Amino acid sequence: MNILMKANHNDIKKGLSVQTQCYLLIGLQIIGFFVFTIYPILWSAAKSWFFYDGVDANTVFVGWDNFKTIFTKDYIYWNTWKTTFKFTIYKTILEIPIALMLATLLSKGLKGSNFFRSMFYLPNIISVAIIGVMFSNLFDYFGVMNNIMQKLGLIDKPVDWFAGTGTALGVLVVGSAWQTFGINVLYFCAALNNVPNDMYEAAEIDGAGPIKQFFSITLPMIAPVFSTLLLLSINGTLHTSDYILVMTNGAPAGTTFTVGAYMVNKFVPGFAEGVVNIGYGCALSLVTSAIYSAIAVIYLNATKKLKNIY
Amino acid sequence: MKKVSLLLALCLIITCFAGCGGKDVSTGAKDKIVIWSNNAHSKNFYNEKINEFNKTIGAENGIEVEYIIKDNIGQAVELAFVSDQAPDLMFGTALEKLAGDGSIISFDELKNGQKYIDKYKDHLVENRNMVNGKTYRLPLNSTTYGLIYNKDMFKKAGIVDKNGEPTPPKTWDEVVEYAKKLTNLDKQEFGIVFNAKDSWWYGTDINQFASAGGGYVDGLNHHTQQFDFSGQAEVMKKIMQIKKDGSYVPGAEGLSNDAARARFAAGGIGMKTAGSFDYAVLTEQFPAKIDWGVAPMPSFEEDERYAQYCLFSANMAINRKSVEKYGEEKILLVYDYLQNDDFVVDMYKAGVGIPYDYSLVKDVKIKDKPQWKEFADLLAISAKPSNVIGIKSDATGITSIVTIWSEIWAQKHKVSDIDRLIADYTKQRNAGIEKYIKDHPDYVVPEPAKKDTRVLVK
Fold it and tell me: Which of B39, B94, B363, B387 has the fewest CB atoms within 10 Å of its CB?
């Protein structure tokens, strides 16, 4: 009995010691998380009930006024949600199928697959500012795209890409999809690698062609990963702000502002013109966070079945 | 192994506090006075002057000055004060906040501060130099604004006087007319360029440029303490006429100010709105390939020109604790060296800053910087600093005039609706004044100006 108790005591001592080490190692991250994430969130949430322009002496408690203004007067904010949803849907429709198709090709083990995998990922490491400058120049009125399209006879005169909401949104979608499709290719490659080959062999024996195999085997097998990828892609796209600010800054007439870009442009000191009611901006952030959370919950409930499809 | 992991963990934690080191206050026997600035453009000039000071006056008085450029200086200074690592002298501060919490000291509190207040009293402005009547920063430079124009294009289009010299537009009607004359689509030449991508496009091209015609900058009439954006509405109509004529560089929505300046410098564009900071841009950053000049802002009527908008910038604020640490004499010795009239004139000669007072450089001759001289001459027709405090207005929930203008430009509204839209906006902003007063019972409504602050210069 004593030996057992001694053995258990030693085990416990060892466990505590390992635990302590682990907590020490991640302690910094936890402290950083509370200081740089949780505290600012709580500070911002608290300021939502105030008129606050950066000067403490001018700070005044306004109760629910900021929220009443959001829901009754700020039609621009709700219009940016429409733009955000449009941007997200168009980008997802463009990006995900292309990423999946390329990942499927890469998983065939063709020559140069590794090279192409790296090349597809490269845009992901380019900064948003550089991408903004690149695409602004590409789609400039006197830029390369108009030049090429005129030479090919596709257009008679240059297109003013950023003068119309549709064309500006199109450029934004193309640029953003170009930047982020590579990471989705990698994720899909990883998911496809986990699909057992014998399933394809069995399907081939049964006479199933490549397309049938793709829809009957590949898609269902990667469904759980696919749903997570889709959530990450949608979530990331919904949060887009700096890319919009660099590319169009909301042009034309603020119609390409996403929610995040609108809040930064109008309510973040340094970006916004003149003195702004930061308290109102905080209230907007709170409402926006609630909507993002609701979207995530709805999505997770809707895709619950995908986890157990196979 | 356990000990190694524990040691590693402790090292990780300790290295994170490495950035919390204290300020190095002195090198040897000298007091090190640190200056933070956000003006990278004048860095070389300041470094030269400070080296000069360190070798002469600084060496005699046991002072060494260190000049550091900081990005995002407002935030950097605020954080530095919180962690007690603030510099001794600093540019670009949130004046009201730092004065309010006692971080910076006013000249009124300094034993020898009154002589500065007396010297600069005509140029001290509330919320730029002063807070609640106390002086925290002295005036230093000014930024003038005007219309830069391509002299070669003007000559080619025949827009010249009897001596064959190009005549830039004096009124907005002339801007519209000349822009049309200068536009030649076959040669890809355009009358004017707009940087419609930038949020501050309205702020400069419309808000500030309405001033020469009698528009109230930021729409506030200090005499009535009410908003009046009618001047801005007039400028909007002229710019929309330019758009209708097609006399501007297409693709304006995709053009930032940098891109617009680069294109102007390359040629093929007749006019652009600009500030005196653009002199360095068009001589160093994007050296102009054209012969260009600077003209005053256009007015609405040729025989009715008002003092045009000018931005006055302030010199450094003084850290209160630095005066306690080094003594007022040493701090003022440094401040004075970087503030006196000779320094300000040298800044002008170096092409780095136009003084706050035109009389200092009116007769100073500079041969190789004609456009810089033209920007400086605009100071003579610019509005002087005013000490009238603007009344505050709560604009929460009101569609901003920047948004309204961008919708007008995108033709979501007709030109004939401009007056109605601006009148509606004005009404809302005036209602915002009452709301601000109601929500801030402690707010002391400032005294209105005794008369209209707009000054006729012609």
Answer: B363
